[in-house]
Amino acid sequence: MTRTQDRLFWLEERQLAPRWSTAVSGLVNLAALIVAVAIVWWVFFSIEGIFKLYTPLLGFSMVIWTLLIILWQAQLFDFWPLSRGFLENAHPLSKGAVLTLITIAVYLLLLFGIVWFIIGRLGITYFNWQSLAKYGELGQDMLSTRETASWAMLCLSIPFFLVGVWFMLGIGKDLFHELGQPKFGLANWLFVAVIAIPMYVIFFHPHLGSMFYPKQIYAAVPPWWESIAQTNSAEYTVGILFCSVIGVFLALNLWDGWPFDLVGRQPWRFFYFALCSLVIGYVIFRIQLYIFDYLWYEAYVGGQNEANFGWRYSHTVTMANFVLVIAIIQNTFFGPAYEKMNRIVGSIIKTVVAIILGLCFAWAYYNWGPTLLGVTEGVSHPSENASAFLILIINIVMIQDLFMDRWPGYQLKK
Amino acid sequence: MDRRNFLKRLAATGTGIALSGTVGTLSKAHAAKGGKEDFGEIKSLKVHCISETSWFDNATLGKDIKAAGGINTNQYDVAYTEENLGGYAALVEVEALDGSKKKYLLDTGWSNDWVDYVFAKDGIDKMLQSKEIDTLFISHDHIDHYFGIESTLKHQPDIKIYFPGTSMPKSFELLKGADFSATPGCPKNSVPHTGELVVTTPDKLYKIQDGMALKFFDCPATLQVRGENVLYFKIKDKGYVTVTGCCHPGILTLLSHARRNFKDGNKNYGCYGGLHISVFENWDPKFDDIIKGVKSFNMQKIGCNHCTGWIWAEKAEQSGLPIVHGTDKNLSYKKVGSLSRAKTSNVYLGNGDEMVF
Fold first, then answer.
1. Are residues B27 and A213, on separate chains, in Cβ contact within 8 Å?
2. Is residue B17 very low, low, confident or very high in pLDDT (cuts 50, 70, 90)?
3. Is residue A410, in this structure, part of any structural domain at all?
4. Residues of chain A with C-beta less than 8 angstroms from the C-beta of B24
5. ipTM of the assembly?
6. A262 at the B interface (CB within 8 A)?
7. Percent of chain B with pLDDT over 70
């Protein structure tokens, strides 16, 4: 078994080049992305499609977990168990198919096997909608319980995402580097879980405990953030922690990793990375709340739709995701166009483009989404969450980038 | 990275944070604009619950909607279990300051069988035929508030109707006479509407009579429906009362709208109707926020039923809100909802109950 410290990860080693000019290659990839997203959305998620998984929370929880698994494969497990020869020589379509199937298999095993089937049936009721309907009181039917269980899975993904990002990018190979794969990936993953699970218990479990009548106060403390957030809903913690994850990816895609690269020596790099992500996330979160206040007046306790504190917290994630999608597409498909620019100038241009196009994208989604995607009309619809669609797009860009070497617009340099 | 560059970059981040702190002050100027409306006063208001049981079993309706694709499916595409269907309707009786009284119908239910039954039970059919009731307010075009339109029109085809401008195209077709009943539980109307149709929009307040006004809120609802008409009343020496079908805009939106836009708008006396909170008796911590928010408005009488959620009503009462209890009249109706049968408490104003403000 090769020690992790002795060789580069596949993503570090591979070199990609546009197949044609940067603009043409980027546009070809964009076209391929649009086609792929349309097919996947209509087959699996749209309420007018085949599987109708966009309920919306069931679909949302699925895309967020699959994105996490895609990143684990690339950043923690270095595509184990696939050989380097396969990664170097197989056609991108073959690689994409194999790695996507692995992603789906891991998702089914982890979420539906362990969390839903085992934990939800033998441990924590709210992870399984059938258990909830079985043990619930008045009116706990599948339509409601499926959303509750999906919300719980969604919440569980957030600390795994945030801590995972701290480890994947803030630690990298600095821990357990003497191990080969899959030990290296597994060791890091378990370390992530050790931190993420208590975070879930603190930041989200109180919300879940309050989702029943009477409140499950002997199993979960009432939401401790109420006096800070003006709501009992964990959308407050979702907003801050999710924006923190988004902040890291914005920095990677818009500012070449600044300011996360300011500290290089461990363990300070890890702590600085974690703190920095939280600070940037909070700034993204808070700035948007000020803008929402301006657009829709101040929120008030118990308000509905735009006037609801929880919805606004959640909407910071949605709007940040609109910008993030553009930032990722811009960097992944059109990145070489910025390589010759001064770093600061390039970062400013990329940021301005991402914000402007992100807002245009949001406008288009809310105006044309009901027709093109079959989503419901309205920005603040209680059963609508654009992040499901946006994270699906990121999933497919990641499959195209990490699994398929940005095919068809890009190719491996031999 | 040398120390000077580190500090420069740190300063850039700090400037961003400082900038973010100034944006919020803009909202205060925005909130200050707008005048207060005065649409008069009435002496008293009586609301009679013709029917609040839009369906009789939550799980059955939930199963139908889930099978069709979930809560965002088009309401005309869901195959409903027909024996589960009821409908929402209320009789609103207004006493003007001079003592004269006028009756209005709010909503027209869902299943024609059920609506015909409850209309006959309360004499609504005769009131329509004699034009004692000459105006129908459709709060919104949801299944349970509007699909029973034929039951009203067959008694008075030329009744004046206030109709939400955001209603679905098929809902407008239904009004003119259409048949969607090939899908179980979907409506038909063989009596086209011939009277005045007021299509409501969010930009104005519709004064119905002194002390009574209708406000349309463009807000999202389930099953691809949007918007809701809400009735506001100002009762002399008491304050404002809202009467709603489902209250999709949210009770606190209604109270806040009155506070911001109506003369003496901070005097909120009470409300009647569905409040659309824990509709399927599921709970969310946000619903605790609503209890806290409503408490801050010091209402004197809260009459709720239908989509409010039994759980919310019970928790609201436990927290000290003045929930008006219903009687057991509903148990004598030919059909009784599964929640009423469970008889957990009488926190709902049930079928046949009345509330006076």
1. no
2. very low
3. no
4. 289-290, 293-294
5. 0.89
6. yes
7. 89
pLDDT in tens, B269-299: 999 999 999 988 888 999 999 999 999 999 9
Would you say B140 and B231 are in contact if contact means Cβ atoms under 8 Å apart?
Answer: no
Higher pLDDT, A370 or A244: A244
**Residues of chain A with C-beta less than 8 angstroms from the C-beta of B285:** 207, 210-211, 223, 231-234
B284 within domain boundaries: yes
Q: What's the structural domain count of chain B?
A: 1
Domain, as residue range, for A192: 4-404
Question: CA of B260: which chain A residue's CA is closest?
Answer: A297
Residue B236, min C-alpha distance to chain A (Å): 27
Give the total number of structural domains in chain A.
1
In this prediction, residue B34 carries a pLDDT of 57
Does residue A28 lie within any of the structural domains?
A: yes
The answer to whether residue A414 sits within a structural domain is no
Residue B25 CA to residue B242 CA, distance in Å, equals: 32
In-domain check, residue B178: yes
In a domain, A413, yes or no: no
Check residue A376 and report its DSSP letter. Answer: P
Q: Which residues of A146-172 are buried (b: 16+ CB within 10 A; e: fewer)?
A: bbbbbbbbbbbbbbbbbbbbbbbbbbb
- Inside any domain, residue B19: no
3-state secondary structure A120-159: HHHCCHHHCHHHHHHHCCCCCCHHHHHHHHHHHHHHHHHH
CATH code of the domain in which B47 resides: 3.60.15.10
Q: State whether residue A268 sits within 8 Å of chain B by CB.
A: no
pLDDT tens digits, B236-266: 999 999 999 999 999 999 999 999 999 999 9
Mutate which of B5, B13, B15, B20 to test chain A, going by most A C-beta atoms within 10 A? Answer: B20
**The predicted structure's pLDDT at residue A137:** 64
Across the strands, what pairs with B179? Answer: B188
Can you give the residue range of the structural domain that contains B214? 39-356
In whole angstroms, give the CA distance from residue B168 to residue B222: 12
Contact B288 A309 (CB under 8 A): no
